[in-house]
What we know:
Chain A is α/β, with parallel strands linked by helices. Chain A has a single domain, classed as Aldolase class I (TIM Barrel, Alpha-Beta Barrel), CATH 3.20.20.70. Chain A is 34% helix and 17% strand. In chain A, the strands form three sheets. In chain A, strands 3-4-7-8-9-10-13-14 form an eight-stranded parallel beta barrel, surrounded by eight helices. In chain A, strand 13 (233-236), helix 8 and strand 14 form a beta-alpha-beta unit. The longest helix of chain A has 15 residues, at 72-86. Chain C folds into two domains: 4-83, Translation factors (Elongation Factor Tu (Ef-tu), domain 3, Beta Barrel), CATH 2.40.30.10; 96-257, Rossmann fold, CATH 3.40.50.80. In chain C, the strands form four sheets. In chain C, strands 10-9-8-7-11-12-15 form a seven-stranded mixed beta sheet, sandwiched between helices. Chain C is globular and about 50 Å long. The two termini of chain C are 34 Å apart.
Amino acid sequence: MNIAGIELKNPTILASGIMGTTGAALARMGRNGAGALVTKSIGPVPKKGHNNPSMVELECGYINAMGLPNPSYSGFCEEIGIAKSKTDAPLIASIFGGDSAEFTEVARGLLSSKPDCFELNVSCPHAEGYGASVGTDPDLVHEITASVVDAVDVPVWVKLTPNVTDITSIGRAAETAGASAVVAINTVRGMAIDIHSGYPILGNRFGGLSGPAVKPVAVKCVYDLYKALDVPVIGVGGITCPQDAIEMILAGASAVEIGSAVHDDTQIFETINKGIDAYLQKYGYSKTEDIAGLSHEMI
Amino acid sequence: MNIAGIELKNPTILASGIMGTTGAALARMGRNGAGALVTKSIGPVPKKGHNNPSMVELECGYINAMGLPNPSYSGFCEEIGIAKSKTDAPLIASIFGGDSAEFTEVARGLLSSKPDCFELNVSCPHAEGYGASVGTDPDLVHEITASVVDAVDVPVWVKLTPNVTDITSIGRAAETAGASAVVAINTVRGMAIDIHSGYPILGNRFGGLSGPAVKPVAVKCVYDLYKALDVPVIGVGGITCPQDAIEMILAGASAVEIGSAVHDDTQIFETINKGIDAYLQKYGYSKTEDIAGLSHEMI
Amino acid sequence: MRPIHSKITEIIEESPNVRTFFFDTHFETAIPGQFVMVWVHGTDEVPMTLSGKNSITVQKVGDATSRMFELGIGDHMGLRGPFGRGFTPPEKDEKVLFIAGGVGAAPIAPLADIIKARGIEGHTILGSRCCDEILFRERFACGRVDITTDDGSEGRSGFVTDQLAETDTSDYDRIYVCGPEIMMYKVFEILKTRDVHVKTEFSLHRYFKCGIGVCGACSMDPEGLRVCRDGPVFNGSELEGSEFGHYERDSSGCKCHF
Amino acid sequence: MRPIHSKITEIIEESPNVRTFFFDTHFETAIPGQFVMVWVHGTDEVPMTLSGKNSITVQKVGDATSRMFELGIGDHMGLRGPFGRGFTPPEKDEKVLFIAGGVGAAPIAPLADIIKARGIEGHTILGSRCCDEILFRERFACGRVDITTDDGSEGRSGFVTDQLAETDTSDYDRIYVCGPEIMMYKVFEILKTRDVHVKTEFSLHRYFKCGIGVCGACSMDPEGLRVCRDGPVFNGSELEGSEFGHYERDSSGCKCHF
C-alpha cells in the first residue's frame, strides 16, 4: 500500500522510540511483520538521555521520559544501513532538533544512509528545548517542516503532540509546509509519584503517557485531523490489538504505528495484520484504504 | 479542614456531574462520607443534554458527553436547599455559561439557596459555546472569574481543562481574578468508535475521558499548578483508591474530588478517607495538609 | 463495557405498536427484571428490560423506538448490559402473583418462565387496552390468568386494579408488578392498605442518561436511589414516601408530575 | 509495575567494594539469573541480578551504587521485578559446572543454593582479584571449589580461564558463567573450541533504559536480542557471532569496544 509517499508492506508501523536504537533491533521488528520501521529520534549531537527510571508500567499504560538518547546522526547512519540491508520494510528516520537549522542538519546528515522517509519529532513532551517545546507553535512547525522538506528528496512526516489546545492548527501548519503525512499522537504529558518515598517515579520527574490509557485521546486527534487535513494521518497511541487498530483506521488513520504494545508481544505486527485482514474479509472490504475514515460517514 | 475558604469535613469531595442532579442524590453522597458536594453544572436555561449513549465504560476508564443537562438555576435552587437540609457537607454549586454575564446570572440566581462555594465549569470538553470553549482562553477565564467573584460573597473555585497547551496560564488567570482555588482536571478530550457499526459510540460523537486512564495526566497538571500558583489546588481525575488520592495530594492537591469511581463503590469517600488516615498515621503525619505538595521537596 | 454489536435474528409483531426483537447476543447471566441499554445507531440509546435472554419487547413511543421499528432481520443494534437489580425469584413453596399492565408484561414474563419451569404456580392479572394488545398470555400460563381490557374486548372490562380490588392477596408470598407508573402506584396503594406492599416488587421507569449509576439523572427522591443501579426493581417498602407515583424528571432534570 | 518500596533489613559487607543488601520484599517467584531494577531515590535506577530471593549484591562502580553504599538498615529503595530470562536449572542427574568471576558470583549463587538443596553435585571455578574479594564461597560448597585469585593470595594464581583450560569439561551437562564480559568471552572461546558452548549459559550486562524490553537500548547485534528481556541469560549458541565480547553501547547508543 502506498501511503503518504512510501510503499508500506502493511498498515502496521513500528513507532519511534521502540526497539529503534540499533539497526539489528529495527530489522528484528521488520522480520516480525512491521510494515515500516521508524527509528529512535536522532539529533545533532550524542545525547545520554535522562536518568532512570525512564519507563515504568502504570495501571493503564506506560509513562516514560527517555530524554532523546541517541548517538547523533553521524553515529546512526551505520544503523540505518544495517536495518535497510536486513529487512525490506521501509525505514523512516525520526529526527529532532532545537530549530529548523538543527533539523535540517540532522536530515542532511542521515541522507547518505538512504532513509525512505523522515518523521519529524516535534512532540516529545519531556525534552527541554526539543520536541513539544517547538511542536506547540504552528509557526515553528511550519518553518521546521518546510526546511526539511526543502532539504531532502523523500517524504517528510510530522509527528504531533496532543498536548495542545488545538492539534489541527499544528497539523495544518505541517501540511501547508509540505508534509506528506501527519502522525498522531506522541505521548500525553503525565506523571506518577511513588507515594511511599514521595518521589516522582521518573528520573525526569514527569514524562509522557502511552498505552491503552491514551487510545481514546489518539482516536479523537486522528478523527479531528482527518477532517481538517488533506494529507494522510498515521494513527498512533495505545494500539494493542486488531480492534484498536481498526478503531484508529475508522477514525481516519491511513496506517497505524505501534509502540508500547511490543512490551507484551514482539509479534504484535503480525497479530494485528491478521486481525485487520479478518475484519476486512468479514465486512466485505478489499483493503485497508476502504475503511480509513469511515466513521465520518456514519451519521 | 479549611481549604480555599470553605470548611471541608474531610479531603474527599464529590465531583461535578456525579450524582449531582438532585438534592436527594447529593445528600446521599454526603451521608456516604463526602467531605463536600459539587452539584451538576447549572446554566441559565433548562438544557436536555446530548442524545445517548452519553457515558460508556471503556477499557481504562469512562468516556462521556452528557451535554450539560440541567433544569436551570431557577429549577435547581430547590435541590440545593434539599441537599443542604439533609447533610452538613458543604455544598459547592457548579455553574456554566457562555460568557461572564451568563455566569453571573446563574451565580446570582442560585445565591438564594445559599451554596457554600461556586465552582466555575470552564472546562467541559464537549459543549459547544460552553465549558472548554471559554476555558482555553486565559482572558475569558479571567473576566468570567472576576465577575462571579464580584457578584457573590462566597469562595469561587475554577475547574480547569487539561486540553490546553499550558494549564498554568489558565490557572494564573483564575488566581489573578480572585479565585479561591483551582480544580484540576476536567475530562480529557477523547473518542471511541464501535468498529462493527462504524459509529462513534457517544451520541455527541466525542466526549471527555475520565477514570484511571487520566490519573497520570491529572497528577501532572496538579503538580504544575501547585508550583505555579499560590491558591490551593483541588485534584481530580481517575482517583479510585486511597493510594490515588495520596498521589494527588503529594503532587500538590489540598483536597481531591472523586467522580467516576462512584460507579464501583458509592462508599468510596469513606474508603479513601480511612486509607488517607492510615497513611498519615503510618508515616507519622498528623493531617492531610502536612503532605500536600510534598513530592516537590523530594529531589 | 462497549455496546455489543447484536444482529436481529427474529422480530415478532406482538401488537400494532409492540414488537419483540430477538438477537444473536444472549445474556445468559441476566436475572429477570434486569435491563440492557439499546443503542440505535445514529439515533439514541434507551433502556429496555430484557423480555428474554436474547430479546427485548418494545413499544413504539419515541425517536429510538420508532427507528427500531424500521429495522429488520439482519440489522444491528448495540446492546450493553445486563444492568441493574432484577426481581427476587420466588422460593420453591411460595405463592406468586403477577400484576402486569400493557408492555409491562415484558419484564415479568421471564420470571413467569422460570416459575413455570420450576413447577411453581403463579396467578396473573394481565391488563391491556384491548384484546389485540394482550401481551405474552401464553408465557403466564403457569396458573390462573385474569385478563382485563380497558375497552372490555376481552376478559374483565376495566383496569388491573379493579381485578386486584376483588382478589384476596393475603395468601401470596410474592407479588411482582410492572406497568405504567400510575397503574403501579394504584396497585401500591391497594397493597399498602392491605399491608402486603413489603411482599411486592415494582419495576420502575425513569429517564436514564449513563445507565450505569454514575450521573444520578434517574435518582429518586428522597433517598437518592438510582433507578438504573439500585433498581429498576424496588421492593414496595423502598418506595414508601418516595416520588414514586407523584413525579419523575425529564432529561434536563425538571420534575414532571404524573 | 510501579517500584515496590523496600526497606533494607540487613547489609553484609562482602568485601571493601561489595555489599549485599537484604530487603523486606521477597521475590518468591524469581528464577536464578533474573534481575530487578533498583531505584535509588533521587539518583538513578540500575539493574541488579538477585543474589537471593530478597537480596542484591552490589559492587560500588557509579553514582547509583555509591549512593546505595551511603544507605543503612531501615532505609529504602524501590524494586521492580523480577524481570528477564534466568538460568535453566539442571535436571536431577545432570553434572554442573559454575564459572564465576568477581561480583559475577552473585547471579549464580542462587542456582548453587538450589542444586545443593536438590542434592546435585556442582563444581565451581570461582575467581577474584584477591583473597579478600572471594564471594559466596560457602554457597558454592556443593562440590569441589577451585579458587583463583589474580594476585595469588589464595588458591590458584591467575584467572578462571587458566583453571578452565586444565579442567575437563566433557562430562558436564550444564555450565553456568557470569563475570566481566572479557572473562566470559574468553570462557566462551575455550568452550567453543571444545564444542560444549551449547551447554553453557552466560549472564550478560548491558546499559538498560526501560528494563522491560521496549526501548531497545540493550539490543545486541546482529539479532537485536534484548539483554533485559530475551536475556540477561543467554545460551552460548545464541551468542555466537554476536557483539558479545566485542562491544557494548553506552547510554546514548554509541558503541564502546572492550
